[in-house]
Amino acid sequence: MEKAYNLKFFTIILVLLLVILLDVSSVHGWTQSASLQTTQRPPYYSGVPLELLVVAEGFDETPQPKLEFEQPSNVSLELVGVSPNVSSNIQIINGRMTQSRSVVFKYHLRFLAKNVGNYQVGPFVVVQGNTRKRVAGARIDVGKVPRATNQNIKLILPPSDLYVGQRIPISLEWWVESSGVENLINQQAQVPLFDRQDDFQFYDEDKQEDNTFSILLNSGQQAFPANVRSDQKQNKTYVVWKIDRIMVPLKPGEFDIEPASVNVDEGLRWQRDLFGRRTATQSRKLRVDGKHLKFTVLPVPMKGRPASFAGAVGKGVVLEVSADRSVVQVGDPINVTLILKGGAEVESASLPSVADDLPDTDFRIPEGEIAGEYIGDGKRFELVIRVLNDGIREIPPISYSWFDPNLKEFQTTRSRPIALSVKAAQMVSAQDVVRAKEFETASEEKELETQQVTKETRPAFTLNRADLSINKDIDLLTHSSGKFLGGWIQQGMCYTLAFMFLVMAPLIKRRADVDPTVVGKSKELQLQREAISTAASPGDLSDALRRMAVVADVVSRKEYESVLAECDALEYAPNGANSKIDTNVRNRALALADEMLEGII
Amino acid sequence: MNNKSDISIKTSECLKYLIISSIMVFFIEFQVEASGSLEDKIKQAFTAYSQAQQATKREARMENFQRAQYLFALVSKQGIEAAALYTNIGTAALQAENLGDAVLAFRRALEIDPDYPQALQNLKQARELLPAWVPKPIEDSTLDSFFSWQRSLSTAEQSGLAALLFLLCSIGFAISIRWELILARNLAFLPLLLWMVFVVSYIIDITTNEGRDAVIIVDDTIARVSDSANAPQRFSQPMSAGMEVKVLEVRNDSNWAHVSLFNGRDAWVNFASLAYVDAPN
């Protein structure tokens, strides 16, 4: 009994070991682990993408492990991206250091089921070199999103016939009853028409709108500028989000487009945060679907196509033509620029042949198709033509045709003619050739040859690099330019003044260096000398002379005494008050005054 | 009887009055006042130019451009020397496809204001319209850019600036003599040095510059090897209007001018077929 018990025990251990060994051999990994997670709680809805996460741990940092999985049927499962996360941890406890390193790879998958059902996802295998880690799959129940009764979505196309190449304005409108708008969060629309890139091309105009409308495309989420307005319908007020796009059909045919839809969360319970903002604590998904869209794209009729039609469809096309020169000689190249503008899809438009407008008897035009350049508001084509006939007086109007889908017929526009002045080319005849003179040097001969060759290469009279505006400042045009310092009078004055300064400076310096007392004495002596010369009586004369003697030294003392004595004698003589000064005495007094003045200076 | 002090005082008084009167004359601008008739002509020229620009027929365009050129030229003949006026003459002449007058007018505008941008631009364009064989003035080299300050001033401006510098220098020296200021003396050396630069530059200019600048104004002017109508042609083709030359010699008795081209070649041309760039009035 005991033996049987032992045998049974060993058998169980052996089986367990075998199971472990088998598991190890299949996975080839001991330390790696991987798991499947989701960021959202059930329920899951059709048409609403679900994010799945495969978290792989314990793998080496490089190379990045690959995630292998089988594509489930009837649903879309896409690997959106991988986010590796590497973290190191060092712990020191009681002086003992332990270091750990963690490498985590997160694989983001987008699961999208269009129909209600139970879908198997996985299994997944994380592969790095020879290491494979298997992650068990899971089943996901996908239910139907409750239909929103207060919303509507419309994709609006023009009711008229659509043609290939036509620029068709289309709009998407999302109507929500105004009473429920404030409870809606996380709006996301799907518009299958916008994903038909093989059949249609879409253009968005640059608009500055305050609101955006989010649409989930195959290429990812994209926010479009949206115009939001309030509208009335069946006595209810709606808030309407509207986006506008331009659709250009690329191929003819009948199209049945799946309806556009909007998934939105409706908040059921709310709470306010510290800043008073509302956040939903409980919500439910709502969905609204539009209508199937059926329309036909027609090809441009073959019947009645003009020669100048090159595939443009639209309305109001304008062709502007300009030339870089208007005065040419026969054979000279003329750069002709054609700019196509208007309501047609000009970006993809090509230039029709201009051979019908520019006959080959008068013009030489380039062969082959002319490539254009899109310049924002139009398309520019450039071609070089040459005039072959000096009788040509203009570049004739150039035609451009397009198909007008509203009128359902071809239209043709013509550019304005460009006036030309064509001169006959200068031909070099034998008479024009002059033999070089013998006495001229070799270099001169060479120059003559060059001149002869270049005689006919006189540049065309183009003024494209000149500034041909005229100055209209009448004041500027009727007055000579300022001649400040430029005139000979001013310059002569400059030099005269300069020499005067140089002459005057020493004189002024000399005057300034004189002692002020001497200057005072000199002035006093001058004054008294004047008094001597004008003195009416001998007394006045002797007074002036004495005052001078007080200020300055008397050089001729005897003479001074003698003059004073004579003056006194005259003054004190009987009737001396009326006596007159003798001229000799006055002259002697003036001589004495001059001597004293000289002595001072 | 006057003594020395009296003389010096009177001399200084005279100098004082002379300086004051000199300064007054110095700041007087000698300009010809624009009369009403000048304004009328200018306005007529504007109208003609505008009509020419709007005309679609070539003949009408040419006629109006020529009229605008003529009216602008009439104003310049009244003694008005303005770079803007000459540029207008040149621009109208250029539009009238009259290269000789255009080049001449642009050169005259640049004589007055060597930096006048429109004249520089249009002269360059006019030179490009000349036949390829016509030698053109050599473009400035890197070394020349060192002296660009000199080219940006007209000859009159250079000589005027030199005179002003000499005046500043003499003022500096006068101050240094009167008040014995060493700083004033040292500062006076700077304008003196600049004045000397201008003088040396002027001397170099007049010694190296051979002949007076002129422009051929008559198209298809025959260049001869000597001053005779019977002399052989110098070049295989006639000279184009707008060619810039230097006049080396003028023989008044025969009305022939000896000119040199920018490639060093020389020729004799009829004096009436050229016009000097400087001193139009």
Report on this model:
- The complex is a heterodimer of chains A (601) and B (281).
- Helices cover 23% and strands 39% of the residues of chain A.
- In chain A, strand 17 and strand 18 form a beta hairpin.
- The longest helix of chain A is centred in the N-terminal third of the chain and has 26 residues, at 2-27.
- With 601 residues, chain A is of the alpha+beta class.
- Chain A contains eight helices and 34 strands.
- With 281 residues, chain B is α+β, with helices and mostly antiparallel strands.
- Chain B has three domains: 36-128, Alpha Horseshoe (Serine Threonine Protein Phosphatase 5, Tetratricopeptide repeat), CATH 1.25.40; 148-208; 212-276, Roll (SH3 type barrels), CATH 2.30.30.40.
- In chain B, strands 4-3-2-1-5 form a five-stranded antiparallel sheet.
- Classes of the chains: A alpha+beta (601), B alpha+beta (281).
- At the A-B interface, helix 2, helix 3, helix 4 and helix 8 of A face helix 1, helix 2, helix 3, helix 4 and helix 6 of B.
Care to give the gist of this entry?
The complex is a heterodimer of chains A (601) and B (281). By secondary structure, chain A is of the alpha+beta class. Chain A contains eight helices and 34 strands.
Low-pLDDT stretches of chain A: 24-29, 437-456
Largest interface: A-B, 69 and 81 residues
Strand content of chain B: 5-15%
CATH class of the largest domain in chain B: Mainly Alpha
Main sheet properties of chain A: 6 strands, antiparallel
Number of helices of chain B: 9
E-strand count of chain A:
34
Give the number of DSSP strands of chain B. 5
* Whole-number tally of structural domains of chain A: 4
Could you describe the largest sheet of chain B, including whether it forms a barrel?
5 strands, antiparallel
Instruction: Give the CA-CA distance, first to last residue of chain A.
Output: 162 Å
The total number of structural domains of chain B is 3
